[in-house]
Amino acid sequence: MKRENRGQYASTTVAGETVNAFVPAALPPTPPVNLDGVLRDEIERAVLALGRLDGASALIPNAHLFLYAYVRKEAVLSSQIEGTQSTLSDLLLFELDEAPGAPIDDVVEVSNYVAALEHGLARIRSGMPLSNRLIREVHGILLSRGRGENKAPGEFRRSQNWIGGVRPALARFVPPPPHEVGACMGELERFLNDRPARTSTLLKAALAHVQFETIHPFLDGNGRVGRLLIPFLFCIENVLGQPLLYLSLYLKQHRQEYYEWLDRVRREGDWEGWIGFFARGVTETAEGAVATAHRLLEIQRADHDRIQRFGRVAGSAMSVHQEFLRRPVNSVAGLAAATTLSIPAVTNALEALTRHEIVHEITGRKRGRVFSYAAYLDVLQKGTEPL
Fold it and tell me: Can you spell out the DSSP letters for 167-197?
């Protein structure tokens, strides 16, 4: 559906050029979104898929172990959309103080994303609403180190930005002028908190993501923060008990279509088309997360059964294996600290696990060796190859 009331253009001057910056109309859209027919079915499928994902997460033993690596997979994917070359293995090596294969600035950005995501979830669990204060806090952590630390972390922008093109007059899109950002974000905050009226969670997440990206309130990091709003919203509204729904893989795989839908909403107000794309992404992503969880559980159980037959070293090998479920890349010293086993006990356990090809040493060094839980990591890394 095309809409006349999409927003308005404001003339602004940037670097000596006069351009038209787009100020979006407040949510919800007018006229209201038409949820009949195919779109209603797509939304229902997405809601059912979210329910299955939530049910599956409740059945996973030690779900926090799975979550540790899954959050890091999301951090890698979301950052790759912005152009980083880091992989999940790079991030896990960086967290062990080992040299990653990707440029260090790329890995720092991904590490910042993990910290920002975890901070946001902790604040939500403490009772903080999804507010501009929380959004600015998350942004401040996201840009706290590396390339973005000079881009006003945690502050709404005070200068004009643009998307695409080497200068504003050639841009694909020019977001609102800086003096409009506060008002636009205030309207978005009210919408997120159901003022003046309640909006269903899935619909709210779809609408709010585009609105945030259109406002583009920060000098840098808008894409990553906008994607974080989605799991934050699903958690704060109790659609998911665990933050296991991340759309970055879907958006990475369909990034051209994603950008086209953002532009189409701004040009034509076609919210129905965007919501359909978003709902299909939620369904695909939720079903993929359930399949991933089941596959990881199969690997965990099969290796657990094998380790039980290790004889005298089975007990220590089981403890080491449990830690590999949390950190699929780990060092001898890290495993000893996490399991409280002695270095010799960890070494013997690793020798047994390596002999049975459950873990593999990845450095080739005699000292400071690092091991990978390859089968587990292979499942998690699916789709995280750099663009």
Answer: SGGG-SB----HHHHHHHHHHHHHHHTT-SS
CATH of the domain at 317: 1.10.10.10
Query: CB-hemisphere CA count at 13 Å for 124?
Result: 25
Average pLDDT of the residues of the chain: 94
Residue in 143, 168, 166, 132 with CA at minimum distance from that of residue 219:
143
Helix axes 201-215 and 178-192, enclosed angle (nearest 10): 170
pLDDT digits (tens, 9 = 90+) for 55-70: 988 777 677 777 888 8
Digit-coded pLDDT (tens) for 125-184: 999 999 999 999 999 999 999 888 899 999 999 999 999 888 888 899 999 999 999 999
Taken in order 171, 176, 182, 187, the sign of the CA dihedral is negative
- C-alpha–C-alpha distance, residues 324 and 62, integer Å: 13
Same domain, 45 and 72: yes
Domain that holds residue 355: 308-380
Residue (of 102, 53, 55, 56) closest to 79 by Cα position: 102
**Separation of alpha carbons 86 and 98, rounded Å:** 14
> Given this model, what pLDDT does residue 168 score?
84
CATH number for the domain harbouring residue 276: 1.10.3290.10
The one-letter code for the residue type at 284 is E
Quick check: bond before 217 cis, omega within 30?
A: no
Instruction: Give CA–CA dist 72/53, Å, rounded.
Output: 18
Packed helices 271-307 and 38-59: angle between N→C axes, nearest 10 degrees = 20
List phi, psi (to 5°) of 15.
Answer: 50, 40
Instruction: Show the tokens assigned to 4.
Output: 């006349």
pLDDT tens-place string over residues 230-251: 999 999 999 999 888 999 999 9
Whole-number Cα distances in Å, 60 to 262, 268, 278, 318: 36, 44, 27, 18
Q: At what angle do helices 132-142 and 104-125 cross, to 10 degrees?
A: 150
pTM as predicted: 0.94
Same domain, 359 and 284: no
Amino acid sitting at position 386: P
Q: What does residue 92 show for φ and ψ, rounded to 5 degrees? A: -65, -35
